[in-house]
Amino acid sequence: MTPLIGIIMGSDSDLPTMKDAIAVCEEFGIESEVAIVSAHRTPERMVQYAQQAHQRGIKVIIAGAGGAAHLPGMVASLTPLPVIGVPVPTRNLQGVDSLYSIVQMPAGIPVATVAIGNAKNAGLLAVQILATQQPDLLVKVQQYRQNLAESVMAKQAKLDELGYEQYLKQL
Ligand SMILES: Nc1c(C(=O)O)ncn1[C@@H]1O[C@H](COP(=O)(O)O)[C@@H](O)[C@H]1O
Description:
This protein is an alpha/beta fold. It contains seven helices and five strands. A five-stranded parallel β-sheet has the order 2-1-3-4-5, with helices on both faces. The chain binds the ligand Nc1c(C(=O)O)ncn1[C@@H]1O[C@H](COP(=O)(O)O)[C@@H](O)[C@H]1O. The site of the ligand Nc1c(C(=O)O)ncn1[C@@H]1O[C@H](COP(=O)(O)O)[C@@H](O)[C@H]1O has 17 residues, from strand 3.
């Protein structure tokens, strides 16, 4: 099957963060491709990837990077596809550097930026974008939300049963 979601990252060291986006694609049965692409270290590869992704059938790109995280914005400047940026947490600045590098795009070249380290939401957003054109997938998204609500209500029932002190002990 042709991959519909491109998940790219500046380094293999981003994979522990970005794996959550891959897992969401798998959970929803959406084919994704995973690639290490760096604006800084492999600029020609980045240009090629960004310019060709839509021609290969990719519909949404998720781009994660840390520190001077130029990858998502540069890819967005080179593709007509929607780009979702994931600020990868960093040791020295806890990912605030990544967030600021990704989120403050000039008008005209948007990057839909999720919270620091939240590749799961990037995956979900990509799935929801695809779901606008796939009724079956839209139903799966609604089911996912239903399951989420039910898990919260199960927690509430347990909290009511145990009281907060006991509940705290089993967290
Ligand atoms: N921010 C970028 C870009 C880019 O934006 O092109 N390329 C690599 N990096 C980031 O450098 C960090 C450290 O990388 P290494 O662990 O390989 O030294 C990673 O978080 C990566 O995303």
